[in-house]
Amino acid sequence: MDSKETDMTRTTLFTKSSIVAFVVSCASVLLTGGVLALTPQCTWCDTISDALIFYQDNYPTSNFEPYQDTLIVVRRAMGSDDQQTVTSEMGKFFQMLRNRSYGINGAAADELHNFALMVTPIQEYGISAPPPVTGQ
After folding, report:
1. Could you read off the pLDDT of 37-90 as tens digits, one per residue?
2. Quick one: which of 24, 26, 65, 82 is 20 to 30 A from 136 by CA?
3. In a domain, 59, yes or no
4. Taking a C-beta distance cutoff of 8 angstroms, is the pair 130, 98 a contact?
5. What is the separation of C-alpha 119 from the centre of its chain, rounded to a whole number of angstroms?
6. Residue 72 lies in a domain
7. DSSP letter (8 states) at residue 130
8. Structural domain range at position 9
9. pLDDT attached to residue 135
10. Considering its fold, how many domains does the chain have in total?
């Protein structure tokens, strides 16, 4: 192989490698964007979810999973601009806290209720939040 053929082979390999790298990069961006699109932005949902995790760690005998499940429904509704579902599911969320549903600790329920009231855009979504039960 003479030097001209060697240079041409190197150029061809470089070009093919560049094309493969470009395609892989584009695919990664598209896949990452697709995955991120499946999880709609809801920072206040994330804040409440983080608080639920904190309370789960501090009250391990309490079942906070149904509360997390409700927030998942709210996130999906936010992603599809379904305000009615956001409103109804957050109303259920607050009612669950008020009733101490699924055996969660009363102090944790009250604290979560007050915290969620502070971070949830109640007026924007017309969410009806019952007052917490106190003195139990």
Report:
1. 455 689 999 999 999 999 999 999 999 999 999 999 999 999 999 999 999 999
2. 65
3. yes
4. yes
5. 15
6. yes
7. P
8. 1-38
9. 55
10. 2
